[in-house]
């Protein structure tokens, strides 16, 4: 029997139509990227460094999209990224190409629509300190999609000859914000 752990996914942003605020990340003794993304300038600097280290062309579009994902607290849809970068000259086709390139470089990963809330593919920054295998959560009310870093992902035994390309472990329900709103609405 072959065994494989869950598929690669990471990073995340704000729903509820609010602008994305940078996620304060825990300080790291190793100086990991998570500790460097505490401000818009540091998200941009980190994006510049990671794109440059990838060996690919260090374009403004790649840096801007990656900085947007680094700053996010949840996975973002194509349209959410487009809205965040509306002031740039980034067109839809270029955005699609940049997202594909970031995924190929393991700088970002895809997170599919998990609960049926919508079918929008989302993208998140692949934080190096986050393991490849981790679970995701999606709110069934607002669509917020996030990584669940503290959840152990089991390995999967498959029959010989099967070559897994990934495993998705997904949970869904109400995020803390929607659960609180629902609780308040019931009291009224």
Explain this structure.
The chain is of the alpha+beta class. Helix content is 34%, strand content 15%. The chain contains six helices and eight strands, in the order E-H-H-H-E-H-H-E-E-E-E-E-E-H. The strands form three sheets. Strands 2-4-3 form a three-stranded antiparallel beta sheet. A hairpin with a 5-residue loop joins strand 5 (135-139) and strand 6. Helix 2 (40-54) packs across helix 3 and helix 3 crosses helix 5 (92-104). It is globular and about 50 Å long. The model is unreliable at 1-36 (pLDDT under 50).
Spell out the blueprint of helices and strands:
Elements lengths: L1 E3 L28 H4 L3 H15 L5 H12 L4 E2 H7 L7 H13 L3 E4 L10 E4 L9 E5 L5 E4 L7 E3 L11 E4 L2 H12 L1
Parallel strand pairs: 5-8
Antiparallel strand pairs: 1-7, 2-4, 3-4, 5-6
By DSSP, the count of extended strands is 8
Total DSSP helices: 6
Order of secondary-structure elements: EHHHEHHEEEEEEH
Report the structural category: alpha+beta
C-alpha-based Rg, rounded: 17 Å
Kindly report the average pLDDT value.
76
**Main β-sheet description:** 3 strands, antiparallel
């Amino acid at each position: 029997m072959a065994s494989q752990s869950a598929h690669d996914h990471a990073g995340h942003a704000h729903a509820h139509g609010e602008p994305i605020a940078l996620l304060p990340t825990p300080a790291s003794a190793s100086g990991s990227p998570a500790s460097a993304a505490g401000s818009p300038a540091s998200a941009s600097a980190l994006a510049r460094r990671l794109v440059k280290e990838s060996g690919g062309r260090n374009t403004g579009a790649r840096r801007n999209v990656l900085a947007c994902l680094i700053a996010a607290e949840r996975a973002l849809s194509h349209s959410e990224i487009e809205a965040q970068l509306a002031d740039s000259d980034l067109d839809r086709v270029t955005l699609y190409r940049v997202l594909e390139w970031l995924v190929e470089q393991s700088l970002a990963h895809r997170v599919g629509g998990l609960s049926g809330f919508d079918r929008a593919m989302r993208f998140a920054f692949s934080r190096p300190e986050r393991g490849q295998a981790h679970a995701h959560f999606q709110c069934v009310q607002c669509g917020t999609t996030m990584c669940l870093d503290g959840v152990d992902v089991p390995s999967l035994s498959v029959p010989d000859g099967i070559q897994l390309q990934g495993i998705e472990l997904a949970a869904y329900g109400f995020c803390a914000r929607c659960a609180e709103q629902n609780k308040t609405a019931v009291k009224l």
